[in-house]
Every structure is written in structure tokens, then in C-alpha cells.
Amino acid sequence: MACVNFDHVSPDYPARKPVQLLLELADELALYAADSDQAYQALRAFYDQADSAHQGLSSLRDGSPRPLDDDLGVRDAVDAFARVIGELGGGLLILDTCEELAKWNPGT
Question: If DSSP codes are grouped into helix, strand and coil, which group holds residue 27?
């Protein structure tokens, strides 16, 4: 089981760090992955892929294509996260409500 509370995640993560939500979930799953060499290796590979994706996005300027429109490693990171879940044998992922995102105004 993994839980993410959006009160602790920057509301602009989808544009700036699209893999951040998966990183938050992965941090919660790390304890479970420690029990399996395959799950632990999959988790390490995911962290590497997520870091690579975010580094690739850091060079984009505002107005650039959306992160999923370019081959910047985001899809590979998502696939790597799916492998982690598969190695863990599935799981329950809980997402807190997004009321903070509804309050966020990018123009301020």
C-alpha cells in the first residue's frame, strides 16, 4: 500500500516534474521492495529513469511541447514504475484528493 498526500507535492508537478507523483508512490513502496531482489532492482531502475526524465525536462523552456509529447523519458519512467508494481505482485495506491490543485492559479 502506498499513499500520496498532495499537500506535500508542488501543484505544478505535472508540467515541471511529471514523474513526481510516481516518485512519491515509489518512496512509499520502497519498504515493500526491500523484501525482494527483483522488486528492489526494478525500483532502482525506476528511480534512475525518473531522474533522467526530469533532467531532460529541466532544459525545456516555458511554451515548449508538453512533457508527454516529446521523447524525454517520461513514458520510460512510467513503464519502469509499472515493472515495480508487477514485481511487487500488485498493490493498493491511495491518492489524497486534489483540492490544493483546484486552488492553484498559475497566473499568480
Answer: helix
Assess whether pLDDT exceeds 70 at residue 107.
no
Residue reference for cell 531502475: 45
Residue with cell 498559475: 106
Q: What is the pTM of this model?
A: 0.75
pLDDT reported for residue 66:
58
- Cβ pair 20, 46 in contact under 8 A: no
Is 84:2 a contact under the CB 8 Å cutoff? no
Please report the pLDDT score of residue 48 as a whole number: 96
Q: Give the up-direction half-sphere exposure of residue 43: CA atoms within 13 A in the CB hemisphere.
A: 21
Q: Which of 97, 7, 20 is nearest to 53 (CA)?
A: 20
Q: Please write the tens of the pLDDT for every residue from 47-72.
A: 999 999 888 777 665 555 555 555 56
What cell numbers appear for 19 in the block? 514523474
Handedness of CA 79, 13, 5, 97 (dihedral sign): negative
| Domain boundary assignment for the chain | 13-91
